[in-house]
Amino acid sequence: MTSPNPPPAPCLDWCLFLDVDGTLIELTDTPSQTVADPEIKALLKELSLRLEGAVALVSGRQIATLDQLFAPLLLPASGLHGIERRTAEGVVQGGTFVDSKLDHARAAIQGFVEAHPGTLLEDKLRTVAIHFRLAPQAGVAARELAAGLLEQLGKQYQIQPGDMMLEIKPRGFSKATAIRAFMHESPFSGRRPVFIGDDLTDQDGFPAVEAMGGLSIGVGDRVQGQYHLDTVGEVRSWLKSITALHNPRAAL
Fold first, then answer.
1. In the sheet that 92-93 helps form, which strands lie side by side, from edge to edge?
2. Cβ-count burial 240-250 (b if 16+ within 10 Å, e if not)
3. Alpha carbon distances (Å) from 24 to 29, 43, 60, 98, 159
4. Which spans in the chain are helix H?
5. Is the whole model's pTM more than 0.70, yes or no?
6. Residues forming a β-bridge with 93
7. Using CA atoms, how far apart are residues 190 and 88, in angstroms rounded to an integer?
8. Which of 31, 100, 166, 168 is least surrounded by Cβ atoms within 10 Å, i.e. has the fewest?
9. DSSP readout, 144-173?
């Protein structure tokens, strides 16, 4: 299938912000089933070289999980929807710890999972999520549970909807806040930002890059960006076109 509004030909003065699941890697039934194949690792490494390090992963996963997926690569990254961030220099902000305020939510979701086969609790320490991809019939009950838990937690937390999942996380963080922070730092500052994502968690990042004169690229049918790619395969093909660009600095 050909995307109705494919992104333009790329340039080497861009910087890339890339969602992972459903964008670089096909979605799986559970988060633990996801594997980064050698092709995407090699592509990310080459992209980072071509763009002089201006490539960041922007994900709902923890940074530690991203490092395991893409080992041995250690790219600039934002995890947990902006809660964690690692700069290009390797400085980590928003360190990992267990948020004890979510203990009741953990216990309640665990009880829900035990009562609804096919659902899954994903505990990311500073956030907790209910997955119901394998039990879509539990979606309504999962939403009711999450809403009730949020009411108990108060205004410091919010529900982040995703593809067949709901995540309770601290308020005030997003992929947009992470991208804005990266854009104030080398090697991202001064470049044109491009954000590629496929899910509702990516939607707030699109206007952020657009406001900075950048490009938003939606993948699949859940989000709407300035440009569109249909599949993970199309994303990879378009990213490969960046690696084919001639870098005049390489001849110096």
1. 92-93, 84-86, 77-79, 55-58, 14-18, 192-197, 215-219, 227-229
2. eebeeeeeeee
3. 16, 10, 13, 28, 24
4. 38-50, 63-70, 103-115, 139-153, 175-182, 205-211, 232-243
5. yes
6. 85
7. 15
8. 100
9. HHHHHHHHHH-TTEEEEEETTEEEEEETT-
Three-state SS at 218: strand
Distances from the Cα of 109 to the Cαs of 1, 7, 89, 201, in angstroms?
A: 39, 40, 37, 21
**Confidence class for position 251, pLDDT limits 50, 70, 90:** very low
Longest Cα–Cα distance in the chain: 64
CATH top class, domain 14-96+173-251: alpha beta
Fold held by 100-170: Alpha-Beta Plaits (3.30.70)
Compute the distance between CA of residue 46 and CA of residue 50 in angstroms, rounded to an integer.
6
- Total count of residues recorded for the chain: 252
CA neighbor of 167 nearest in space, from 77, 81, 79, 98: 81
Domains of the chain by residue range: 14-96+173-251, 100-170
**113-143: pLDDT as tens digits:** 999 999 999 999 999 999 999 999 999 999 9
φ and ψ at 219, to 5 degrees? -115, 130
Helix (H) or strand (E) holding 120: strand 120-123
Catalytic residue numbers read 19
SS3 content of the chain, % helix, strand, coil (to 5): 40, 20, 40
